[in-house]
Specification:
With 262 residues, the protein is an alpha/beta fold. It contains ten helices and ten strands.
Length: 262
């Protein structure tokens, strides 16, 4: 991997054996197909480079990732034939196939698909301003990006159920208590701390690190691929409901939804 490169808008730099992947979509860092594919390309390049032993994933701005823009550019809105996979979720699932350990630096909100992106990482270093939100039911929707399977592997079934059924904002301190964040550091030290953790991983024997990670992480890609198929099917019919239309309006009008169960 070169010292500095740009893959379709995602900036990649190197620090020793660590690849630093930075994305920027001001002001909300919305996740769309182009962004997820670009991050995937950066991950693939890191996997292919024998000199890279760890990855830091970070973003610019106040928000880590506000999820998908369901109001203006919903990446899962298009109707597809039965059994046909959605490109957004194909790209999302591939992120979980990354072979190099990933440390995410979470400086603000990780919402919806942004939470899913944070869950791709093996570790999450957060600033005190960070918050993690699975807000799908608050907009009449079903969780996506594999969240309905991966979140409980990180924080346990009951806590994952609580997040998914309430849409509650989990702030940094509680996230650390739950294991959703592995460290909380002041914002000005966030990137340095994430890099330090990545460097600590990279200092280990690379074959042993890879072997151990494979054993403990399991076939996460296959799990997410199957789960996103199910999630998409649930999202497809929910998008046709009055509650989803109301949820999208409520988001654009910055108010709670008035749901009727229809």
């Amino acid at each position: 991997m070169t010292d500095q490169a740009r893959i379709d808008g995602v900036h990649v730099a190197s620090d020793g054996h660590v690849a630093i992947v930075t994305f920027a979509r001001a002001p909300f860092n919305f996740a769309d197909l182009a962004l997820i594919e670009s991050i995937g390309a950066a991950f693939a390049a890191a996997d292919a480079d024998p000199d890279v032993r760890a990855i830091v994933l970070q973003s610019e701005g106040r928000v880590f990732c506000a999820g998908a823009d369901l109001v203006n550019a919903n990446p899962v809105a298009e109707d597809r034939a039965a059994g046909e996979r959605n490109p957004f979720y194909v790209a999302a699932a591939k992120l979980f196939a990354v072979e190099t350990p990933v440390v995410a630096a979470i400086q603000g909100a990780a919402v919806g698909a942004g939470l899913g992106l944070a869950l791709v990482a093996d570790f999450r270093v957060a600033s005190p301003e960070a918050k993690f939100v699975a807000n799908f039911v608050q907009i009449g929707f079903h969780p996506g990006f594999g969240i309905s399977a991966v979140l409980e592997r990180v924080i346990g079934r009951q806590r994952a159920l609580l997040m998914n059924l309430t849409g509650r904002r989990i702030r940094a301190e509680q996230a650390a208590e739950w294991g959703l964040a592995d460290a909380i550091v002041p914002a000005e030290r966030l990137r340095a701390e994430a890099l330090s953790l990545a460097q600590e991983i990279a200092a280990g024997a690379p074959l042993a690190v890879a072997s151990t990670r494979t054993t403990m992480r399991g076939d996460l890609f296959a799990l997410v691929q199957a789960q996103t198929d199910h999630e998409l099917a649930e999202q497809a019919w929910l998008q046709k409901t009055n509650d989803f239309a109301e949820g999208v309006r409520a988001v654009s009008e910055r108010r709670p939804g008035n749901f009727t169960g229809t």
